[in-house]
Design goal:
Elements lengths: L16 H30 L1 H11 L4 H29 L1 H18 L6 H15 L2 H10 L4 H32 L8 H23 L12 H17 L6 H5 L2 H30 L5 H29 L3 H18 L6 H22 L3 H4 L2 H16 L1 H16 L2 H22 L19
Helix pairs in contact: 1-7, 1-8, 1-9, 2-8, 2-11, 3-4, 3-5, 3-17, 4-5, 4-6, 4-8, 7-8, 7-12, 11-12, 11-14, 11-16, 11-17, 11-18, 12-14, 13-14, 13-18, 17-18
């Protein structure tokens, strides 16, 4: 079995100078566009958390209905992700990403015209359908251009764009809702959906002309550069082992245990994304600009936390204790929120650190499954782990909304998320032990001493 704590080399020596020239050109062409697209995607996904502050009164939106609407997005996403990926493989990245971005932008704009909770829920489901396959499609797209020696860094940079989006989305939403939509024809939350939906439509149109499906189709690469990239990917493919059958992957209990851990982590981070503005208002902050600025603090902390924790984990060649400790820190901060609710400064401090820990845990988590699953089972196993964890996006907003409606308090809901994070950390420590078998053997859970 591949050692869990074995670091992956990411040095520039992994590619020869001739390849470096070609890859720099690819990075300069593709990555800025994909990073901005992912930021727009992340902003459009969670802007409902800010719109709720005003639209709840206008369309009679209860906390339970809001939680259901936030969760039903993921239902549409999960149901249509596989068909979207099949479409991606059939028609290519350019057509798929163009279709996804234009559709999600259009749905975001149309959400501005809902006038009931049921209509909002329907639009959130459609948004999930429209966005389905974007993230997994981009991850697959990157594998068409970059060998494994570079793919880790490239993928990490792409995912960090989502955290950057969290930093800017709050202040941007607060600015829009403060300066636009204060008349009888257009409300502030309507202006938010319209203004933030337009960039996705524009970028979808640009994608058709800017992206190339594969290196061989890139007119902006020389013939020699195309051949360099194609040859590197072909050599890597020749050395790869055959994929294991789906049934063998499905019978691996380790995958389900890791899916449970990811479910707990994703539930905590998802709670942050959809309920943080409501929590901040509950602390006594009413100004939308201030709510936006405060809501960006956890993402700033998360950006630093992801870098520092990842660096510490690599330097010490240790993964699971870093992840378990991060999850417990997040849980501790969530539990502490209820005890300091009368102190705004302490509430913001615990919220920021707790949310940053929950978000940082995601990047730490994804260092573990690839190290324990060999190449034969990695593709199917990682997809299944991701699918299991993503269902937390369906469950957690609905559960939080129901708890808020029943108790009138978000603090109880954050207590539930804290318990889930602690439970996930215990499953991780009990299940995952330092591997002692041969590389690339499928990991078997060992229940017992961590």
């Amino acid at each position: 079995m591949k050692q869990l704590d074995e670091p992956v080399s990411m040095s520039c020596a992994d590619v020869v100078p001739e390849e470096n020239i070609a890859y720099r050109k690819v990075i300069g062409r593709l990555m800025p566009f994909l990073l901005i697209a992912f930021m727009v995607n992340a902003i459009d996904r969670v802007n409902i958390s800010f719109a709720k502050l005003s639209m709840a009164h206008d369309i009679a939106l209860s906390d339970a209905a809001y939680g259901f609407g936030a969760g039903v997005f993921y239902l549409g996403y999960v149901l249509f992700e596989v068909p979207s990926n099949l479409y991606f493989q059939r028609v290519g990245a350019r057509a798929t990403l163009t279709r996804i971005m234009i559709l999600w932008g259009a749905v975001t704009i149309l959400t501005a015209f809902v006038n009931s909770a049921n209509q909002l829920i329907a639009m959130r489901f459609l948004l999930g359908v429209a966005e389905a396959g974007f993230l997994s499609g981009v991850i697959l797209y990157l594998s068409y251009w970059f060998p494994s020696a570079l793919r880790g860094r490239i993928t990490a940079a792409f995912l960090m764009a989502g955290v950057v989006a969290g930093i800017v989305s709050g202040p941007f939403a607060g600015w829009i809702m403060t300066h636009f939509g204060h008349d009888a024809r257009l409300r502030d939350w309507q202006a938010l959906f319209i203004i933030e939906g337009i960039p996705a439509v524009v970028m979808g149109a640009i994608a058709w002309f800017w992206l190339a499906d594969r290196p061989a189709n890139a007119s902006w690469l020389s013939a020699a550069q195309k051949q360099t990239i194609v040859a590197a990917l072909a050599a890597e493919h020749d050395q790869s082992v055959q994929q294991e059958s789906l049934m063998k992957v499905l019978r691996n209990p380790f995958i389900y245990l890791m899916g449970l851990v990811y479910f707990c982590i994703y539930g905590g981070s998802n709670t942050v994304s959809y309920w943080m503005p409501t929590l901040i208002r509950g602390m006594g902050v009413e100004d939308l600009k201030s709510i936006g600025i405060i809501s960006s603090l956890p993402y700033i902390c998360a950006l630093g936390g992801m870098y520092l924790l990842g660096r510490s984990s690599d330097r010490r060649q240790e993964r699971r204790w870093h992840l378990a400790a991060t999850m417990c820190v997040g849980a501790g901060c969530f539990l502490a929120l209820g005890f300091v609710r009368g102190d705004l400064s302490l509430s913001i401090l615990f919220m920021s650190v707790g949310c940053a820990a929950a978000l940082s845990a995601i990047s730490l988590f994804w260092t573990i499954p690839p190290a324990l699953l060999g190449p034969a089972s990695a593709a199917g196993g990682i997809a299944l782990i991701s699918s299991i964890g993503t269902t937390a996006g369906i469950v957690s907003p609905m559960a939080i909304g129901a708890i808020r409606s029943a108790t009138g308090s978000l603090y109880t809901a954050f207590d539930v998320m804290a318990v889930a994070l602690i439970g996930g950390a215990l499953v991780l420590l009990i299940t995952v032990r330092r591997p002692r078998t041969e590389p690339h053997e499928i990991a078997k859970p060992e229940i017992g001493r961590a």
